Structures are given as C-alpha cells and as structure tokens.
Amino acid sequence: MNYIAPSWLPGGNLQTIWPALYSRRTLGPLPAYRRERWTAPDGDFIDVDWKVDPATTPPSETRVLLVLFHGLEGSSGSHYALAFADFAREHGLAYAVPHFRGCGGELNLGPRAYHSGDFEEVAWVLQRFRSVHSGPIVAVGISLGGNALLRWAQEMGATAGQTAAAVAAVSSPIDLSAGGRAIGEGFNRLVYTRMFLKTMKPKALRKLAQHPGLFDRDALLRARDLYEFDNVFTAPLHGFRNTQDYWSRASAKPRLRQIQIPALVVNARNDPFVPAACLPGSHEVGANVTLWQPAHGGHVGFAHGRMPGHLRAMPDAVGSWLLKHLRSSQGVHHG
After folding, report:
1. Which of 107, 177, 192, 205 falls 20 to 30 Å from 158 in CA-CA distance?
2. Using CA atoms, how far apart are residues 213 and 37, in angstroms rounded to an integer?
3. Given the residues 299, 304, 310, 325, the one annotated as active site
C-alpha cells in the first residue's frame, strides 16, 4: 500500500483523529443495515449487521461475503466499517459486521466480554457465516479485531481455508505490550486512553451489576490506563492471570509464521497506538503473510483527497488485495 497523506493532514495523531471525526465515510450513499441476533455456544448472544442490498443485486448467499471485525468499542457504524461497506457496495459484495459482545448497543448476558486475542469468538462467528453463506468468504479485522482475526488464522492452521479464503488486519496491535505501553503515555494517555475508558468503565460497572462479585469495583474505578483496566477486568474475565499474561498470549506477532492462508497485515509507521519499532519485518513472517507498512496513515485513518478527505483509500487497497487473492486461489469472480 503506497499511501501518502494529504499535505493538509500532517502527523500520526491528526491522521488518526480527523478521519474518525470529519472525513467522508463513503463515496456513495450511507449503507443501510439489517440486524440479526445470533446465539453463542454458551447461550449468550451477539448482534450481526448485514448490509442491505438493492433489489437488483444478485442473491447474497452466492456472492463473495466480506466480514468485518471491528476494533475496541467499535461497531457497524464506525467510520472504517462504513467505508468498507461502501467498498462492498461498489464491488457487488455481501457485507456483514458481527459485533463483539456488548458492542451492539445492548449489554450481553454472560460475564465474559471480548478481548484482543479472542480467536474462539472469531472461530464460531466465522463458522456460523460459513453455515449460512454458500459463496466465498474473506475477512478483515480492524485494530483489536484484526489481532483476534490473525490469532484465529494462526490457531486454525491449514483448516482456516475451509472457512475463509483470505484475511487482512488493519492498524492491529499485534504486539500488545508495545501498544499498551504506547497508549498509556503522554498525549496518548490524555486523549485516547481517556476516550476508551469513558465507555469501557461504565460498561464494566453494568457487567458487575449484572454479575455481583465479578471483579473489584474500587480497583476498576482507580484504573487510569488500559494496563490497569485489563488487570482488573479483561484479563481475569477471559482466563488470563494478569495483564502481562493477556498481552503476551494474545499477541499475534510471535505466531505470524503459523498462518497458512493469504493474510495481509497493514500498519502505518506513524500509528500512535502501534509503535513502528515493534512492527514485524519480512524475516519474521511466513510465506502467506504480506506486510504493508506505509509511513503515514495514523491509526485506522488513511484519509485521502481534498479537505475533509474521504476514507475509501484504505478499503480500496485492502479489499482489492483480498479479492485478488481470492480469485487466484479459487478462480472466483465477484459482482
């Protein structure tokens, strides 16, 4: 991906914040979604939003399906999700956004939530898509969702191709320890950490009201960064000893050689959340993994064109890569 930021949008922080707030999400009409509620194997639920297609579009069951796994506290309404929906519209793809537990607008039932290494959740979600969709499936994960998607591909090994033909991870913190340290310092701590905790803490407290005794309420209220929040909430609720254990075991970077389907890993080298120094080199990945590391783009930014910019540059590049590898591996035509 040879992305060059517009001259009016300098620096990784501005390239992160401006696109999320002001850039055009789509080049066409905003997508309409149809929601389904799926029951998880443990009796809980997730909400899946499907892009509603025009009546003239061929039946979605036989077309290429693009599945997007959102980032931390994201949804089908996130700026990047709308931009990928627009790519899917233009290319005649079916498109769906499964929400991680608690991210669809309603608190989930069980004590678990979601986390960066949640490959078990990705596995049953993709298998459910496979059971209801007869056409090819490709998947993209954004930030947290991308790390979880890569972890799924790593755990599935050679069998991953039975479910998804190719995957991509965009702006994903594949080294969670490095990303966690970066977001807990300086400007990042003041802006991004505060933004995430503003929604994560109330949601965790609602989870505590739902399941009394689940964690230490006072310790959660004292948490001032993601390390402390994960130590109280995310790590113990999902089977990890502590934050360091979680960040170590959930990171996708150490296992990139295990991936046996085409996988694209996109990270801007000025991403405030993912330091360039922690990004993998070509010698650290297997033959199935392609690395794109443009100098600019911020964290899930990649705005393009005149102010205020639009967000289709990254979905166009990533989506085209997925479709190219799909066609080369299966001889499939979309549209």
Report:
1. 177
2. 28
3. 299
Structure tokens, 137: 């499936």
Q: Exactly one of 53, 175, 271, 316 is catalytic; which is it?
A: 271
Mean pLDDT of 158-164: 97
Reduced DSSP (H G I as helix, E B as strand, rest coil) percent helix, strand, coil of the chain, to 5: 45, 15, 40
Instruction: Say whether 334 is catalytic.
Output: no
Q: How far apart, in whole angstroms, are the C-alpha atoms of residue 204 and residue 221?
A: 10
Residue 271 falls in the annotated catalytic set: yes
Listed in sequence order, the residues at least 6 apart from 80 whose beta carbon sits closer than 8 Å to its beta carbon are 68, 70, 71, 74, 142, 170, 300, 311, 314, 315
CA 251 to CA 279: how far, in whole Å? 12
- For residues 65 and 59, give the distance between their C-alpha atoms in angstroms, rounded to a whole number: 11
> What is the token pair recorded at 206?
């609602």
Give dist(CA 83, CA 279) in Å, integer.
Answer: 25
Collect all residues with Cβ–Cβ distance below 8 Å to 167 and sequence separation of at least 6.
138, 139, 140, 141, 149, 150, 152, 153, 160, 261, 262, 263, 264, 322
Amino acid at 160: A
Closest CA to 315 of 305, 300, 325: 300
Per residue in 222-274, pLDDT (tens digit) is 999 999 999 999 999 999 999 999 999 999 999 999 999 999 999 999 999 99
Phi and psi (nearest 5°) for 61? -65, -25
From 143, 171, 172, 251, the catalytic residue: 143
Q: Residue type for 154, please? A: Q
- How high is the pLDDT of residue 267? 98
User: The tokens of 16 are what?
Assistant: 């992160």
3-state class (DSSP) for residue 292: strand
